[in-house]
Design goal:
about 20% helix, six-stranded mixed beta sheet, Metallo-beta-lactamase, Chain A, about 200 residues
Length: about 200
């Protein structure tokens, strides 16, 4: 099961991804703390097992605290982006409609582990550049890559002028993604979906 909702001021793509047989799902990049997010999960008929952040920027993490407290589930984030949980986002992003509240705790995302959702297995690919702890999530069996803000449609890539961003690291990360199957369906953090091979050609020619 795959469902998408665009949320927040920056129209972040928030994904529910679940296994039909077990009835379990994860929620990727909750960029709002609007209670409609809870209703969306509850109306799915699936059981939320974890919240996953592809990186630590507020437009992908604003709903962490809401979902953690309501569903009592872990929030997963790469350790190199944990510092974003203590940034004063209310001053950096004054357009936020609500105060940023960090989760009580986070569970470490690292490439050494996989996230199992019933029979679905999500691999973790560390893709620094947009942020030091950016990751992509890959379901090789079903041919899906959740690319966060590392890679977008139409040759777009994540900006690197935010705290601890790096254009050099981002280029390395994109080269690593180019080694994956070109047929992967790319589901980015903003905008339309695409195909990996198409986007690699758009970037590198």
């Amino acid at each position: 099961m795959l469902s998408i909702m665009q949320v927040g001021y920056l129209a972040t793509n928030c994904y529910m991804y679940g296994d039909e047989e077990s009835g379990k799902l994860v929620l990727i990049d909750p960029g709002t703390d609007n209670p409609d997010l809870v209703k969306w999960v509850e109306n799915s008929g699936y059981k939320l097992s974890a919240v996953i952040n592809t990186h630590g920027h507020y437009d992908h993490t604003l709903g962490n605290h809401l979902l953690e407290s309501y569903f009592n589930v872990p929030v997963m984030l790469h350790p190199k982006d944990h510092f974003f949980m203590s940034i004063d986002w209310d001053n950096i992003a004054p357009w936020l409609e609500t105060q940023f509240v960090p989760p009580q705790r986070t569970t470490e995302l690292s490439p050494e582990r996989k996230i199992n959702i019933g029979k679905i297995s999500l691999g973790i690919i560390h893709t620094p550049g947009h942020s030091p702890g950016s990751v992509c999530l890959i379901d090789e069996k079903n041919g899906i890559l959740f690319s966060g803000d590392t890679l977008f449609a139409d040759g777009g890539v994540g900006r690197t002028d935010l705290p601890k961003g790096s254009a050099v690291e981002l280029k390395k990360s994109l080269r690593n993604l180019a080694e994956l199957s070109p047929d992967l369906r790319v589901l980015p953090g903003h905008g339309a979906e695409s195909i990996l091979g198409v986007e690699i050609r758009n970037i590198f020619g």
